[in-house]
Design a protein that fits this description.
273 residues, alpha/beta, Rossmann fold, five-stranded parallel beta sheet, 10 helices, 5 strands, globular
């Protein structure tokens, strides 16, 4: 089942998720707020309107799968899992503490509702391709959604999976690229520019739609488009802002993996409220 929430409800949910992302990272004094804030709008759109899942039966075999390949953006996942009933506030507020079910990277062995254990970047799309094969072997109509970061597309394994998905007609495989322009150390353009990602994907046989990843209308249109299975893999290139919603985090490479201090927490919560 999917939640089928309306646009205004999704926008409100994304706002609550942003607040919880900031709170959990601040309390842990560790984590990755920037990429969580850039990705959360499209994650909320996906979970809130499109993803077929059941919190009462998290192991439902025919559920859609969501694979967070940029798994360090785990605060975004924990915030949405709380919204839809998989985890409690006390769970995500124990983020990155010993024994918590909300570890620094998403982990399917620890967290209910997580389908992929992340670590080194670049693995998620290959995992998703395997899940798409399994769905076809099971004669299941479940879809496989994978989110990768733009810096992550510098990994060769990503392109091997992109090439293989077209060859195997993996129409149930959907990739979302969170293109926020910043990776671990600096701007992507300074580290290793990936260029025209849309043209590259098209040349590899994918159908591609490029959107504003913070515009809920564009998000919903793109998810509706991607959901249709015509035998070809689809990619949504979501142009986003790292740290979206918090002025001093926006387009700031420092907040890729840095928590706000007490004073910054107050500013961030005021802006998000």
């Amino acid at each position: 089942m999917s939640m089928n929430l309306e646009k205004e409800e999704l926008i409100k949910m994304a706002k609550r998720c942003r607040i919880n992302i900031i709170k959990m990272v601040h309390k842990a004094q560790s984590g990755h707020p920037g990429g969580s804030l850039s990705a959360i709008d499209i994650i909320v759109g996906l979970y809130g309107s499109k993803l077929r899942i059941d919190p009462e039966n998290s192991n439902w075999e025919d559920r859609d799968r969501f694979i967070m390949s940029k798994g360090h953006a785990s605060p975004a996942i924990y915030s949405i899992l709380h919204e839809i009933g998989y985890i409690e506030e006390s769970d995500f507020m124990s983020f990155r503490t010993l024994g918590s079910i909300c570890q620094g990277h998403v982990d399917m062995k620890w967290t209910n509702g997580v389908d992929f254990s992340a670590g080194s970047l670049g693995m998620g799309l290959s995992f998703g391709l395997g899940c798409s094969f399994a769905a076809k072997l099971d004669n299941s109509d479940r879809n496989i959604w994978v989110m990768v970061g733009d810096g992550e597309t510098q990994e060769g394994q990503v392109w091997e999976a992109i090439m293989a998905a077209d060859f195997h007609n993996s129409g149930n495989l959907k990739m979302i690229i969170d293109r926020n322009g910043i990776q671990n150390d600096d701007f992507v353009s300074k580290q290793m520019e990936i260029g025209d990602i849309t043209s590259k994907l098209v040349s590899f046989g994918w159908e591609v739609k490029e959107i504003n990843g913070h515009d809920m209308d564009e998000i919903m249109d793109s998810l509706n488009w991607a959901e249709l299975n015509n035998g070809r893999p689809k990619a949504i290139v979501a142009n986003t802002i790292k740290g979206k919603g918090v002025s001093f985090m926006e387009n700031n490479p420092a907040f890729h993996g840095m928590a706000p201090n007490d004073d910054e927490l107050v500013i961030a919560l005021e802006e998000l409220s």
